Amino acid sequence: MQKEQQQQHKDSTFLGKIVWILIGILVAFGIKLYISENENVNCLINDDEIIMDNNGKFIRDAGIAYLSSQLNQNIQATKLIADLSINQISDLTSFFESLGQLTKLKELKLSFGNNPIINQEAQIQKLVESFQKLKELQNLNLGIDSILNNQSRMKIIKQISKIPQLITLRISLINCDLSEDGIKSLEPIKDIKNLRTLELILVGSKLKEKEMDQLQLILQKLPKLDKLNLNLYANKIQQEGMNILSNGLLEQRQIRELGIDLYFNNITVNGTESLMNVIGQMNNLTKLNLGLEFNYIKDEGGKYIGDTLIQLQQLKELSINVATKNFGWIGFEAILTAIEKLQPLDKLELIIGVNKCGVKGAELLKNVLFKHNKLKSLKINYLENYIGDAGATFIAEGIQYQKNLEDLYLNINFNSLSDRGALELARAVKNAKSPKVVQLKVSQNQLTDKGIKDMLYLLEQSLPQFNSLDVELLNTALTNATRDDIQIKYANIQKLNLKLNTIPPSNWD
Ligand SMILES: *[C@@H]1O[C@H](CO)[C@@H](O)[C@H](O)[C@H]1NC(C)=O
Ligand SMILES: *[C@@H]1O[C@H](CO)[C@@H](O)[C@H](O)[C@H]1NC(C)=O
Ligand SMILES: *[C@@H]1O[C@H](CO)[C@@H](O)[C@H](O)[C@H]1NC(C)=O
Ligand SMILES: *[C@@H]1O[C@H](CO)[C@@H](O)[C@H](O)[C@H]1NC(C)=O
Ligand SMILES: *[C@@H]1O[C@H](CO)[C@@H](O)[C@H](O)[C@H]1NC(C)=O
Q1: 502 CB under 6 A from ligand 5?
Q2: What's the CATH architecture for 345-509?
Q3: What is the pLDDT of residues 252-267, one digit of tens each?
Q4: Where are the transmembrane segments (predicted)?
Q5: Of the N and C termini of the chain, which has fewer Cβ atoms inside 10 Å?
Q6: Domain 53-166 superfamily per CATH
Q7: DSSP strand E in 307-442: where?
Q8: How far is the CA of 502 from the centre of ligand 5 (A)?
Q9: Which of 120, 153, 179, 205 to mutate to test the pocket of ligand 1 (most atoms within 8 A of CB)?
């Protein structure tokens, strides 16, 4: 009997040991899991700089706990970059609390959009309390895309407007519904007394005509800015909204750098006229990014742009997007001849595709490049413009006339080129002085095996001078055998990023 009991006791201690071993394994594994989760979490600390580069890494709440501890250990930081968007985070309370200890911060980038946070009122309260403590902050970049309700957003922005030294503010609100009263959450921005640079990224924010009243008010009340960037991509402000916004811009006509992106807002001819009227008065502009793609601005709109550009004689950097559903030859010609008359530019980006401007349009571009021949950065998107080989030759001449290039980007997709035109472009890239970063796209043209091999042979010779070369050759008449040869030949060249495919002969055009 006693023996049996002993036996039983032995059995149970044996079982107990197994259980303990199992628990031990689980604990070890759990710690291991925790460690490897933290290995996925980026946190770089450089003296007084903390960089948490974690967008889209699914670091979850465990990752946030680790990052909060890093903040607690480095409260002397003057600069923090915390990219936390798209991470399946539900609770940022500890992180926001830790942030409040970094009272020496001068520069902060905080983006936490696209996270399923719960109980947002309490979390945002913590963030607001921390912003109260960041009295030295000068430069704030806040990314709150697809997250927060109007009240939370309002509370944050209200607190930000009280930061005494703030001179640079960027807020990104992509896919937030700012319609009706939603836009009022931005109103406190107007009270930032020392602001010099403002960027508002309001992409797809459901803005229409009447919401522009609030933006007008903000622009009128703000102090005089140096730089302004308004991204209203994919809203519906229409002609009337553009007129209202232009009234606001008029109060900021001293600015030196302006970016305005109005993609797909249907501002039409009259909206273009009111915008150009204001820009024409910004005679100290050195940098202009104008995004008017898909706005039905018509030839008259193109002429308004041309007439305005000529007045901007301080301009050094120009980016203009007037592609798609805008105008025909007259609008196109007005813009290019105006750019030709500007003082020499440092940077030029011209996105003017889907315009059918043909050979003549390429010749106008050549004239522009002859005038502006000391560009550091040249980006041309002439997609679907029917320029043909003769047009490609004009553009190639313009590129070879450049003396100072650092970046060169050419999109000549879908332009009825044969081998001859594509080779002219490749030769221009090869001879160009002396870009480091190059992208060349000549997809959807009638290029043969021989043409493509010859192009790559030319480009290969300049590879030692480039830091990177991207070449896109999709939907040409390339055959499988040659594609395979090319892929083998260039497989191990790090700097070269080659996009190739083949399509059945029946699809060649
Ligand atoms: C913000 O306010 C607008 C207008 O009142 C409303 O349509 C929208 O749904 C609100 N957004 C949120 C996230 O509460
Ligand atoms: C441009 O700068 C000059 C000189 O600083 C100044 O007198 C002028 O008013 C400025 N123009 C605008 C539109 O603010
Ligand atoms: C674009 O604006 C014009 C002029 O304001 C208007 O007649 C037209 O209906 C608008 N188109 C769309 C799709 O909203
Ligand atoms: C555009 O402006 C012109 C004159 O400035 C005016 O006559 C015309 O009615 C306006 N068009 C629309 C659609 O509002
Ligand atoms: C060429 O390659 C593609 C995919 O790489 C393949 O689908 C196609 O059948 C090949 N064509 C011929 C003619 O072998």
Answers
A1: yes
A2: Alpha-Beta Horseshoe (3.80)
A3: 999 999 999 999 999 9
A4: 12-35
A5: N
A6: Ribonuclease Inhibitor (3.80.10.10)
A7: 317-321, 347-351, 377-381, 407-411, 437-441
A8: 7
A9: 179
